Recover the amino acids of this structure.
């Protein structure tokens, strides 16, 4: 099993490349994203939102300075 912090790092690496196929492979059929203002989204909707967001920029780069897993 891949550790949560390794998965998070991998997610940001894929996001920095706008690799939506790779990001999609991290999701399961039951993956959801919940927003207090706009509701709950499933896997395909999450990827669609990310494509729109990434499309607004020439390039994106997230740098994570620290992370901590809370159990």
């Amino acid at each position: 099993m891949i550790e949560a912090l390794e998965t998070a790092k991998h997610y940001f690496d894929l996001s920095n490349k706008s690799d939506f196929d790779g990001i999609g492979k991290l999701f399961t059929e039951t993956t959801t994203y919940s927003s207090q203002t706009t509701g709950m989204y499933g896997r395909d909707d999450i990827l669609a939102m990310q494509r729109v967001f990434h499309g607004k920029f020439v390039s994106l780069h997230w740098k994570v300075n620290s992370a901590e897993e809370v159990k």
In short: DSSP finds three helices and two strands in the chain. Residues 4-16 form the longest helix (13 residues). Strands lie at 32-35, 39-42. The first strand starts at residue 32 and ends at 35.
